[in-house]
Amino acid sequence: MEDLPARRDRDFHQLDLDGDGSVSRQEFIRAAHEYFYSNDPNAPGGLFFGHV
């Protein structure tokens, strides 16, 4: 099982698309859009809102 800090870092880097060390408003909106409209259960939006 993956430890929490490693999982947190991996998930954060999936959301931080430009690599600037923060999740911008646009990156968050993109994740929310993916959560509601993507058929991919592994889309980064699931990292914020949980998998359906």
The tally of helices reads 3
Low-pLDDT segments: none
Radius of gyration: 11 Å
The major beta sheet can be summarized as: none
Number of individual domains: 1
Q: What is the subunit organization of this protein? A: single chain
Query: What percent of residues adopt helix (DSSP H or I)?
Result: 55-70%
What is the strand content?
Answer: under 5%
Distance between the termini: 21 Å
Q: How does the helix and strand content classify structurally? A: mainly alpha
Overall shape? flat
What is the string of SSEs from the N terminus onward? HHH
> What's the mean pLDDT score?
85
Number of strands: 0
Describe this structure in words.
This protein is mainly alpha-helical and 52 residues long. The protein contains 3 helices and no strands. The mean pLDDT is 85. Helix content is 58%, strand content 0%.
Could you provide a short overview of the structure?
The protein is mainly α and 52 residues long.
Secondary structure: elements and pairs:
Blueprint: H1 4-15, H2 25-37, H3 45-49
Keywords:
3 helices, single chain, 52 residues, mainly alpha
